[in-house]
Amino acid sequence: MNILAASPFEKRRFRMPRMQERNANSEPLPRSRQLRMDLLHTFEAAARHLSFTRAGEELFLSQSAVSRQVQQLEESIGAALFERRHRALALTEAGRIMRRAVEDSLERLRDAAARVRGNARRQQLTLTCTPGFASFWLIPRLVGFTGAHPEIDVRISATLDLEDLTRGNVDLAVRFVPAAQGQGPMLFEEEVQPMCAPQLLRDSRRPLKTPRDLERHTLLTVELRDEPLTVDWEPWLRVMQLPELQMAHTVRFTQYAEAVAAAVAGQGVVIGRLPLLAELVRQKKLVAPFRSPAASRRGYFVTLAPHAAHNPGARAFADWLVAEAEQAAPSPAARRA
């Protein structure tokens, strides 16, 4: 009978279930022994590169040192984090869970360290808002706030995710929600209507004289999870009594700013959100062929985080947002025009 010695990898694979059983049946270890920060830092680099060698180069460690530290972390939590393949690594399901948690924790630690490390006299604030609001309304005006408040550092998190204001890493939010659900001061309500580049109106082969003419044009739209492609169009289509309108072609984007850029380039028709696109209309980069806005029944609301009561910079920014919105509001005559 030939008895073959198990490879080091096989030994680790066979040892892991026993290790998991021992961890499940034993008393909980102190936290300091369960999760060492240096091991988590090494794991994050290895998971990001999917390479112990490249992680070692980043951390100034040898490949074998990275491998040992990852193995120590695996043994401490009782689960394999990587699949060791021939000249390649892949994260296990446990590895993917740990990577998301470790990346989030390290980012929060970096933010906290930056705040502590900074000059105590400088104030900092973090705002979360949608990418469209940031690109088209906030950023063009932001120099007005930073110029008036040079002592305040501003961080903008532009995302479609709903940030949790109770976690402490975001000071205030501009929420785009149904008007009946808004909390805090409302900056403005939204109106929507089709918009396109001026050159598209000059296309004699495909005129845009009535809403039905849209059937000859390309729809520029944003993909939203579990929503129809025309979800942003629905308030306007409802007012126009065109619920079944089908356009000739569709180009989909993941961000509203991309769809707007395509419209400015003359590639189709986008649903224009006002007042976000008011400046592009003023510059005549976009035009509204039908001049028939419809209320979307949604609005932008400023919401302060609970801890922002102790952050004068956040309160100043919220007041500035409200003042800017009031100043930018069109007059009744302009609305009629």
Task: Characterise this structure.
With 337 residues, the chain is α/β, with parallel strands linked by helices. It folds into three domains: 108 residues, Winged helix-like DNA-binding domain superfamily/Winged helix DNA-binding domain (Arc Repressor Mutant, subunit A, Orthogonal Bundle); 97 residues, Periplasmic binding protein-like II (D-Maltodextrin-Binding Protein, domain 2); 110 residues, 3-Layer(aba) Sandwich (D-Maltodextrin-Binding Protein, domain 2), CATH 3.40.190. It has 13 helices and ten strands. It is globular, with a radius of gyration of 27 Å. 24% of the residues are buried. The N terminus and C terminus are likely disordered.
- In the CATH hierarchy, the architecture of the largest domain is 3-Layer(aba) Sandwich
The number of strands is: 10
Strand order of the largest sheet: 4-3-5-10-6-9-7-8
Q: Report the top-level CATH class of the largest domain.
A: Alpha Beta
CATH superfamily of the largest domain: Periplasmic binding protein-like II
Question: End-to-end distance, in Å?
Answer: 95 Å
Structure classification: alpha/beta
What secondary-structure arrangement, pairings included, does this model have?
Layout: H1 8-25, H2 31-34, H3 37-49, H4 52-59, H5 63-77, E1 82-85, E2 88-91, H6 93-117, E3 123-129, H7 131-148, E4 152-158, E5 172-178, E6 186-195, H8 198-201, E7 218-222, H9 234-239, E8 249-253, H10 256-264, E9 269-274, H11 278-282, E10 294-304, H12 312-328, H13 332-336
Parallel strand pairs: 3-4, 3-5, 7-8, 7-9
Antiparallel strand pairs: 1-2, 5-10, 6-9, 6-10
Helix pairs in contact: 3-4, 3-5, 3-6, 4-5
